[in-house]
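Hey, resending since the last one bounced:
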Amino acid sequence: MDDATGRIDRRALLLGAGAAAMVAGAASAAREPLHTPPGGGELPPAWEAAERIPLWDGAPPGGPFVARKDLERRGPTFVTGVTMPDLHVFQPAKANGRALLVIPGGAYSFVSIRNEGVGVANVFARLGYTVFVLTYRLPGEGWTPRADVPLQDAQRAMRLIRARAARYDVDPAKVAVLGFSAGGHLAASLLTGYDERVYAPRDAADRGSARPDAGGLLYPVIAAAPPLTHPLSAQLLLGSKPDAALVARRSPAQHVTATTPPTFLAHSMDDGAVPWQNSELFLTALKAAKVKAEAHFFEEGGHGYGIGPDNAPAGLWPQLFARWLDRTLG
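The structure tokens again:
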């Protein structure tokens, strides 16, 4: 481990027989429930004050929608029951010409607005980014086809940001995505499936590209099957008995190509919900495709920390990501 950057020497990961033990440990960790997210209470004032952009004019695609009756309401900062997805816009005091689409996590069972939305937006807006936080539809809440619904919203969000770039003083060639946990799975799906046709075009915005210019993945769910997946995320996205073709289609590491955007990854190796090998899986695919990539594996940090734990090296990820974006976006 490099103390200055948190990078891990890949040679230390290749331990022969010890690798099997790591995978077995990852399988055990993947069976643990998702963390209880920090926060709670009311939505921060910054969220209420932010400009809101509805994604869809009229009913979204992905119907017919049949609402479940057994949804667990988790409070305003852990959003469920999303029927009209949207973007909340956090504008900087002085724009740097770049935009960041932030996708909070929540195991595809809720959207974690406070720690992986507002907190992240505030930090990057102070750095000059125009930040768009995505509240996306949750696939297990009655949408058909469920496995496409989050990607529909992510693609549409990226296209709307570019369509409105001039309004926000954003260069449409400098739009990045940043996703956390299950939101990291959605961000990785956008990085690899930006051109997948998952909805019929609605308006002029849909003539634009949904390809991010760069991506950041924080403790992402990458695998869609055991032993590395997060079981609840996979079940809610794919259903209880998905066929092999659907699992493969929603396994973003299998779809990395030379045209996949440059990607930054950060993951803590004590993550008890989403094993760090998920990030390694995506990194390996990126390097095999010769895509520019950087990864940081931290010894401690756990899962779901959003902007980062104050007293651990994992809390350095925002600075590391910001510097990487400086080099990548220019």
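Residues 18-63+85-329 form a domain with the Rossmann fold fold (CATH 3.40.50.1820).

Sorry for the duplicate.
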